[in-house]
Design brief:
365 residues; alpha/beta; Rossmann fold; Serine Threonine Protein Phosphatase 5, Tetratricopeptide repeat; 2 domains; five-stranded parallel sheet; 18 helices
Amino acid sequence: MNRLPTETIGEYDDSPNHTLIFLHIPKTGGKTIQHLLASRYNKHSWAELHNDLAEPDLNNVLLRDLTAMPAAYRNRYKYLCGHLKFGVHRLLSNRFDYIALFRNPVDREISWFYFLLANPNDVNYHRAASCKDFSEFVFKQIGVQNGMLKQLLTAEQFNCTQDWRERLEIAKENLRNRFLVIGDIKKFDECLILLKKALGWKIQPVYLKKNVTQKRPKVDEIDPSVRDKIGDNNRWDMELFGYVKSVSLAELSRQHPDFFREVEAFKNLTSLYQKAVQDFDAADYASARLKFESALEIEPNSPDINNCLALVYEKLKEPISALQCYKQALSVNPSGENIIRNCANLLASMKMGKEAEYFRIFINK
């Protein structure tokens, strides 16, 4: 499933003739990894696209636009992501790799229902709101049944047979042949380090959790009859998830002990980074400074950490230190839009008008 890199892909540059496709299965931690990957590409070389997974005939405007583009123009996209169905690679002549994360279907359906209830503006909000409780949602089969399997098939593959067993085997073949990294979201950090190795990244990523469903029961707090019904409704997703887990565990079993030491170091770095962001949001800038500086000792070239520390220095009225951090961040990620904007704002506040205007023009290119 994994492979050793022959080049560095998607580390703050536009990799030639290669497109990474993140097939984002809803409620699998996708917004977190989607944001992390987007930060490593030029803003003009990636796009978020969607199929409407509840209404398969509806595609969003960007996906229709991509289909209508000349082939050479499509290939400028080096990273595509979103609630896509397998097959978008057929629009490209670039080399490509898919990645995807999966989740136990029972846990995923719980998360989706409570996410919809908490988000009235979501296009599928009515599906949850029309039910008096989660049990009714499950027994009326209002959710998208076997949605993970359906995302792994092109329309042609799905329609070529009515046999779900055959569809499952086709999906497995797609995973074996087209996906660079797959895994269970319970092994989220391990999957990210596998991806880092596969893409040849030198700099350790850091992330903040995005779009996490709050105020939802745990799986073992759901009535067993309801859990069983979810399993029945999603029989083929259950089998698919079992296959993904077995493949992922086999991949992890082949890793050298150094890999697991790197995973632990990554978890510690990410935890430090997340706590520093919490301190910053709470306006505890002195504490945030200490944590960001400690994180920078671990990964001194991280654009994300340097950018955050620069913002802390600004709050502490240390503009020269802030500029040094922005300089370091831009030396690694020269097209980082947030870094450029923050630096421009600082230069403007320091009355360095020409320099600030240069940065603003750069952002709007």
